[in-house]
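Possible regression after last week's pipeline update?

I re-ran a chain I had predicted before the update to compare outputs. Posting the input and the new output here so someone can diff against the archived version. Not blocking, just want to make sure nothing changed silently.
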Amino acid sequence: MGIPTVTDRVIQQAISQVLTPVFDLAFSDSSFGFRPKRGGQQSVQQVHRLIKAGNRFAVDVYLSKFFDRVNHDPRIALKLKINEVKICVAKSSECEYLGFSFRSGYIKWSEKTLERFKERVRRLTNRNWGVSMHYQLFKLSQYLRGWINYFGIANGYQRCLDLDHWIRRRVRMAYWRQWRKPRTKVRSLLKLGVHVRTAVACGISSKGPWRSSKTPGIQQALSLAFLKSEGLASLRDGWIKLHHSQ
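New output (post-update):
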């Protein structure tokens, strides 16, 4: 599985354009890998349709080291070994598939998916990153857009609102940490339109960054409108775009 050169890619694409129309028609309707206009999202939606049709149990199977073990000789190409550690038979509501779960007739994010998402956001808003807020927001928004473009097919509007609220608080905390000194904090709040008395009270407060991020003065200065103007992406906006683009 080496990385192809530019010449290899051109040849592979030329072969694909000729062979795909011939062989694609013979592929299973449940095959979604490396096929035109098919991918992970379409496979998740098909699983959802099968569950809604009344299929309540699923066999969760992983092939063990497929590309290491598969013999490319057509005569024995189907001699695959199942990864017995990762196989199970369970109710569909208990299974996870490509980061999604299926409960009460809806596609939802699995708990592992949410945990990984939050951990990544924590790293991108970490105090020890040592980069400007402009760059921090750029990288954070880049991740948020990519994440919701894939996981946005789930029924997660309310969850998007909750996560957006949490993300904005993390960003406010990052600003507050970066301003560091009380004088810098007061000066920055005044510059963003906060009343002098409120700005001073926030600046000299003994509250930690997380608690401070919820105070009215900081929320006023680093408002939703301000954070959007600085380029912070919104999961809610991405979800709406995916579900109501037409």
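Follow-up from reviewer: compared with the archived run. Residues 111 and 182 are 39 Å apart (CA to CA). Marking as no regression found.
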